[in-house]
Amino acid sequence: MISQSVKRITSTIQSADSQQVNTLINQLMALASQSDSEGAFPEEAFGQMAEAGMLGITLPGQPLDFDLPETKNLLQLLKRIGTGNLAVGRVYEGHINALYLIHLFGNQEQKKRYGADVRQHQRLFSVWNTQADDGIRIHALGGGRYVLEGSKTFCSGAGWIQRPLVTGELVGQDRSGWQMCIIPTERVKPIPSDEQFWQPLGMRASASFKLDFTGVELEEQDLLGQPGDYFKQPYFSGGAIRFAAVQLGAAEALLSETRTYLNDLNRVDDPFQKARIGEMTYLIESGNQWLNAAGDKTDVWLTQDDSADKIVAYANMTRTAIEQICLRTMELAERSVGARGLLRPLPFERIHRDLSMYLRQPAPDAALTGIGHYVFHTSSPTHDLWR
Ligand SMILES: Cc1cc2nc3c(=O)[nH]c(=O)nc-3n(C[C@H](O)[C@H](O)[C@H](O)COP(=O)(O)OP(=O)(O)OC[C@H]3O[C@@H](n4cnc5c(N)ncnc54)[C@H](O)[C@@H]3O)c2cc1C
After folding, report:
1. What's in the keyword line of the UniProt record (predicted)?
2. Is pLDDT above 60 for 7?
3. Are residues 239 and 157 both part of a single domain?
4. Distance CA 129, CA 184 (A)
5. Strand duo 151-155 + 163-171: pairing
6. Separation of CA 360 and ligand 1 centre (Å)
């Protein structure tokens, strides 16, 4: 749990390149290996994130307020956090995603209450949607009371999250469908977690356990939005640009570490090493261009009524391109540093494990075919597809 004594938001962060962010990223990098074990969570890193004002940076009046056209800068910030520690980036992205869903679908009272949870208590949020056959049902008991039944898999942050946003099938007489709710963890019965579920290739520190919510009782004020809101486009699929940003951060870390490693070995005049660094550099920069374009275009297209499909198609292109960039960057980095470079305590093997795991995001095939579907069905000429 994040220390209650951390400072309130005092953020003066104006860009992902600010000195404050650079210092934070260095701290995250220095701590990353400490939480790289099953069952661990990067508590100290999140204490520093809270202290640096990161948890509330998208709240009203803050530098990356969701009401401002700041998506590009949010993506660049997510990328930097991913550079510091991919597991921290994953959990932070979930926190930002939950705050965005509250921004989109919360009522005034909820926005105020959840905003205070972040500002005053540094509470962590998350979004837990993935489930297996024993997924969640939200039973309406009447009188504005509900009880949950079932489990979620891949719950990043697990018991360290104080305000998980959980989805499930609402079963009630007057309303039914896929419903979001936010669980005030200190107010409900203990939520058992299955740590054995999480024996992953990488991303150990994301603590993405399986949790059983059966018997958790909620009130009307804990339900967010209406059934079906969670899947509303372009917000649902368009959000892929955020995880792509975090992923690119790890690839950028590989480039940075490879430069340092080869410099230290004085292997910088070799033409093959130059060629690999050259390729990694242009790949990372193309990833940056994807993020910047996706951020700017999303902000513009969100103001247009008929652009939801275009936002989703562009997000699908961004995540698909960045997946390829990350895969190729890992290969190039490993060829550059060789077996000796893949030994601990050097960071390459951890970043490789973490990035390989975190690149496995939902529906990659559907994302690619979705781009094709959009292009076949839009009336825009080819040169004008993304204007
Ligand atoms: C580190 C980490 C943290 C995570 N944290 C969270 C979290 O906090 N909250 C959360 O909700 N989720 C979380 N997830 C889960 C994540 O969002 C995805 O749901 C999950 O990674 C996808 O799992 P999968 O690759 O096994 O998916 P699958 O859907 O099984 O995909 C595997 C492959 O099968 C293909 N495929 C998919 N459907 C079909 C089909 N019907 N027929 C044939 N092929 C198909 C896909 O395109 C892909 O190629 C996390 C995942 C990771 C790796």
Report:
1. Oxidoreductase
2. no
3. no
4. 17
5. unpaired
6. 6
For the CA of 365, the closest atom of ligand 1 is 47
- Amino acid 225 reads G
User: What are the tens digits of pLDDT across the range 309-324?
Assistant: 999 999 999 999 999 9
- For the cut 60, the answer to whether the pLDDT of residue 13 exceeds it is no
Q: Name the residue with tokens 């509900």.
A: 146
| 32 and 86 part of one domain | yes
At 203, list the tokens.
């991303």
- CA 185/CA 163 separation, integer angstroms: 6
As a whole number of angstroms, the distance between CA 70 and CA 350 comes to: 31
Are 326 and 377 contained in the same domain? yes
Of residues 127, 162, 156, 161, the one with CA closest to residue 239: 127
Residues 84, 208 within the same domain: no
Query: Rounded to whole angstroms, how far apart are CA atoms 330 and 284?
Result: 11
Q: Which atom of ligand 1 is nearest to the CA of 156?
A: 8
Residues counted in the chain: 387
Q: Give the whole-angstrom CA distance, residue 314 versus residue 290.
A: 9
CB 52 within 8 A of CB 25: no
Calculate how far, in angstroms, residue 229's C-alpha sits from the geometric centre of ligand 1: 21
209-212/176-182 β-pairing? unpaired
Domain match, 144 and 165 both: yes
Cβ < 6 A, ligand 1 pocket: 90, 94, 126-130, 154-156, 203, 206, 208, 357-358, 360-365
What does the pLDDT look like over 203-253, one tens digit per residue? 999 999 999 999 999 999 999 999 999 999 999 999 999 999 999 999 999
pLDDT attached to residue 112:
98
pLDDT tens profile 200-213 = 999 999 999 999 99
Q: Which domain range does residue 38 map to?
A: 19-124
Angle, alpha carbons 268-250-342 (nearest 5°):
55
